[in-house]
Amino acid sequence: MWPEMNYYNEKPHDPITLDLFPSSSPASSTFTLYEDDGVTRNFSSGSFATQTFSMDSNATALSFVAGASVGSYTGKPKGRGYMLQAHMVQGVSDVLLQDMEMVNYPDMDTLNAAASGWCYDTELGGTVHVKTGPIYIGTSFVVVLLYAA
After folding, report:
1. Which of 31, 72, 121, 123 is deepest in the core (most CB within 10 A)?
2. Three-state secondary structure call for residue 31
3. Which parts of the chain have pLDDT scores under 70?
4. Are the C-beta atoms of residues 18 and 87 closer than 8 Å to each other?
């Protein structure tokens, strides 16, 4: 999802929010995001981009991979932030971005004020929110949520 706006391109499409619904048993899923300039019909001549996301869950962790954005169109951003909303049935002990520990914040207000990090929100039925901060979309990245024991 893009940030809420009244019309296309009212503001930057940043961050992109992705809702994740991991399985408690081993499972995998993928999704491909399609983007174009949203105004012209230039997509018909190849002016668009795609980005593939995948998620693997098992008994100990959820692994999320954002692939590199492939293709180009007028106005394509160089980078953007991502907000992952993992709807969980169990707690999370740690979150890693590219194998580096992210800061765990106590609540959404504190996370929203930070550049990046994560929090576990029990008020929404157990949702882990992960905020990456700006990432160059021409490369892939990995986020791992380690389940609490």
Report:
1. 121
2. strand
3. 24, 124
4. no
